[in-house]
């Protein structure tokens, strides 16, 4: 995670010019970081230009226009910041100071760049960018620091909104716990549902904005818990109201409330970056990450024989081999896998001993023979670790595949439902024991999969799955016991159904997780970001009836399979194009990767897999995809100001095409569709239009890459400022229009103003 603006790839370029921002400001979100990148780029170019010997009249005029335009943009930016300060009194003092500093820095830059009217801009009689070289650096540093501070303070308001929303949810939950009548419960739950939707949208936006992939995965896990628990809370509470003296019903309800509170707290911990009880990591190191680090150290000996001690290397191997005991001690690991892991562990120790022996000799005497022996020892050690990695991966994934296949029939859950309705307490007790055994197996499977997941986000997903099985198992048991005690109770039956569905859903998710783990192991897709659709408003509505999800049947999936396959191939092409870019934080790359990830989710939907479960999920994803495409078009339009005039029309034409196609997709996704045939036609149209957008993206990315390289190879001349968009100013600074306050006073409005600071580009 970045700890200052200069730590991001886009901002680090300023270091060569002596630029920097307040090191105490921590940038945790992409929106703040990407808002600063263009400003840093332009000011850096301006400062670098002060040392160039050739200063034509055209160049001097361009410098002056840039200085004036930056000052004007800063003034408008500050106006929005001051309006935010007036709306949020607890931040007023800090925000006002930052705004004053930014305004002062902008005015200084304007004064120092006032050079076009001077006959001799280098003359000491008039202080300019050419005579006071340190002055412009100081002004630029102050401007960056103060603008960053304003953005970070504005970001605090977003955090405050999430905390306030969480507090409202908690307060309503307390009321729900205490209600004693159905009528009162219905009223309060309706309010609770609306508050949960608001919280889901706020946290969903925050999740996609987080820079840290680990935090993003933790946020996704917590939000998934909250979404599933909302329906559980409904049926568990209704069961308790219907059977107030039933102990198992009370235990069932208390478990849901407890889990929701933990998930709410986890979200706030992530948003505020707090770690309770000194927590630094969610879990101990996995075998995969341990092997990766160990191999890096071993291979580092080729470059430096003295950068670590043999004790450090031995300790690292010991930790890895300790973790392999999770496999060798597991009752679910096959005898064959156990024997192979033990053999490879023994071999790894021997290879390290040989490596250390040659390494110590090479430190004393660097002969050609010894260096060749060292290379052989390094290769053999790394090969052994690769084989160990392959073996534990095979052990974990084969166990998972067998268990998931064995439990696909859900026989235990079906038996619990039947015996519960029969009121057969003895049979329910028998099947709850079997469910507990199944839970233990699945929990062990998740622990082993975590060791071989390959990426931190997937590790967190494994931990979340383990926790879900650990908690949901006992909840199913308490729900089944309640039904057995009250076999004629419709609400107790419905409650057991909800918890069983959660279990089945998690098993289904495990199949997808297993496929993703195998993809990472085999080098497919890697650490691609996953965009989750936000929960839809009204999902838990006032009438307390769950919406019937609409899924494609087998015939419909077959019809749409070819289109889905084309979409899959296009995502691979886009991924290949984005990987060519050196700067992976580039806005064009970020939007391209996001669109590819969403398109891949839509492809999985055509196969009946993935996170998009219903047609409504697909339509919502299509809307988000179109929005992301529109953002990419805006980035392309901004990029067009950097390219040569001859190349600009083509780029703008392609951007306009993209905007038009995304608008059409938005219209299709939002159109109503009644009936099975109309819904399938809409699904087909959404995927077809998504495919067309991806085809255009495959053409756009190489074009931008080519223009970027051509741009970097240019002469670095200055370009005049584009005209200011007055309508954006009025929207951003209209502090007296109450209905626009939510849109105006936040990080987005500040982004608009900093985006319009990009008056200077080097070609």
From TrEMBL:
InterPro entries: Alpha-catenin/vinculin-like_sf, Alpha_catenin, CTNNAL1, Vinculin/catenin. GO terms for cellular component: cytoplasm. Residues 7-18 have a biased composition (Low complexity). Belongs to the vinculin/alpha-catenin family. This is Alpha-catulin. GO terms for biological process: cell adhesion; Rho protein signal transduction. Pfam families: Vinculin. GO terms for molecular function: actin filament binding; cadherin binding. Keywords: Cytoplasm. Residues 1-20 are annotated as: Disordered. Gene3D superfamilies: Alpha-catenin/vinculin-like. PANTHER family: ALPHA-CATULIN (PTHR46342:SF1). It is found in: Cytoplasm. Coiled coil: none annotated. It comes from Furnarius figulus.
């Amino acid at each position: 995670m970045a700890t200052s603006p200069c730590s991001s790839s886009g901002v680090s370029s300023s270091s060569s010019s002596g630029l920097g921002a307040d090191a105490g400001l921590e940038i945790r979100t992409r929106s703040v970081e990407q808002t600063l990148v263009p400003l840093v780029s332009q000011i850096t170019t301006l400062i670098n230009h002060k040392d160039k010997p050739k200063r034509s009249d055209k160049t001097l005029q361009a410098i002056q226009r840039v200085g004036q335009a930056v000052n004007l943009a800063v003034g408008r930016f500050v106006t929005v910041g001051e309006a935010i300060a007036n709306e949020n009194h607890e931040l007023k003092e800090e925000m006002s100071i930052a705004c004053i500093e930014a305004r002062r820095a902008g005015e200084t830059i304007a004064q120092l760049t006032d050079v076009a009217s001077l006959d001799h801009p280098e003359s000491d009689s008039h202080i300019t960018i050419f005579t006071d070289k340190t002055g412009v650096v100081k002004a630029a540093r102050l401007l960056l620091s103060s603008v960053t501070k304003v953005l970070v303070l504005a970001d605090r308001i977003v955090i405050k909104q999430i905390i306030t929303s969480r507090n409202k949810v908690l307060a309503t939950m307390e009321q729900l716990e205490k209600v004693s009548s159905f009528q009162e419960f219905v009223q309060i739950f309706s309010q609770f549902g609306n508050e949960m939707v608001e919280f889901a949208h706020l946290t969903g936006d925050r999740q996609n904005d987080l820079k840290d992939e680990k935090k993003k995965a933790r946020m996704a896990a917590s939000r998934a818990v909250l979404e599933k628990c909302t329906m559980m809370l409904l049926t568990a509470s209704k069961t308790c109201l219907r059977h107030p003296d039933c102990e198992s019903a009370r235990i069932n309800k208390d478990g849901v409330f407890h889990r929701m509170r933990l998930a709410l707290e986890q979200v706030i911990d992530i948003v505020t970056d707090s770690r309770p009880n000194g927590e630094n990591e969610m879990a101990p190191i996995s075998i995969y990450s341990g092997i990766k680090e160990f191999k890096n150290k071993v291979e580092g000996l080729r470059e430096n024989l003295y950068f670590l001690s043999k004790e450090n290397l031995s300790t690292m191997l010991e930790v890895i081999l300790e973790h392999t005991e999770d496999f060798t001690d597991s009752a679910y690991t096959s005898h064959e896998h156990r024997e192979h892991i033990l053999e490879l562990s023994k071999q790894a120790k021997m290879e390290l001993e040989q490596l250390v022996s040659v390494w110590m000799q090479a430190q004393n005497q660097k002969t050609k023979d010894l260096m060749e022996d060292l290379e052989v020892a390094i290769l053999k050690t790394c090969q052994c670790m690769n084989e160990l990695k392959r073996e534990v991966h095979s052990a974990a994934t084969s166990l998972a595949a067998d268990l998931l296949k064995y439990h696909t029939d859900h026989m235990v859950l079906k038996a619990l439902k039947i015996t519960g309705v029969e009121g057969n307490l003895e049979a329910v007790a028998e099947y709850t024991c079997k469910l507990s055994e199944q839970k233990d197996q699945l929990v062990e499977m998740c622990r082993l999969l975590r060791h071989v997941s390959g990426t931190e986000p997937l590790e967190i997903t494994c931990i979340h799955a383990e926790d879900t099985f650990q908690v949901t198992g006992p909840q199913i048991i308490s729900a089944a016991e309640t039904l057995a005690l009250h076999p004629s109770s419709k609400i107790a039956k419905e409650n057991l159904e909800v918890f069983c569905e959660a279990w089945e859903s998690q098993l289904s998710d495990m199949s997808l997780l297993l496929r993703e783990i195998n993809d990472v192991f085999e080098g497919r897709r890697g650490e691609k970001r996953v965009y989750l659709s936000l929960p839809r408003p009204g999902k838990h509505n006032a009438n307390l009836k769950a919406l019937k999800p609409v899924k494609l049947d087998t015939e419909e999936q077959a019809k749409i399979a070819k289109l889905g396959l084309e979409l899959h191939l296009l995502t691979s092409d886009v991924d290949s194009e984005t990987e060519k870019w050196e700067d992976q934080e580039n806005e064009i790359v970020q939007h391209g990767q996001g669109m590819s990830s969403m398109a891949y989710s839509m492809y999985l939907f055509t196969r009946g897999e993935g996170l998009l479960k219903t047609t409504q999920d697909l339509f919502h994803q299509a809307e988000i995809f179109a929005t992301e495409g529109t953002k990419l078009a805006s980035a392309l339009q901004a990029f067009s100001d950097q390219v040569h005039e001859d190349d600009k029309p083509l780029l703008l034409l392609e951007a306009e095409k993209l905007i038009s196609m995304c608008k059409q997709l938005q219209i299709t996704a939002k159109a109503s569709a009644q009936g099975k045939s109309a819904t399938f036609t809409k699904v087909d149209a959404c995927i077809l239009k998504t495919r067309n957008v991806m085809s255009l993206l495959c053409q756009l990315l190489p074009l931008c890459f080519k223009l970027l390289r051509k741009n970097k190879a240019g002469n670095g001349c200055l370009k005049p400022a584009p005209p200011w968009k007055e309508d954006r100013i009025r929207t951003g600074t209209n502090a007296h229009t109450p209905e626009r306050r939510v849109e105006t006073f936040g990080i987005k409005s500040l982004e608009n103003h900093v985006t319009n600071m990009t008056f200077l580009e080097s070609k």
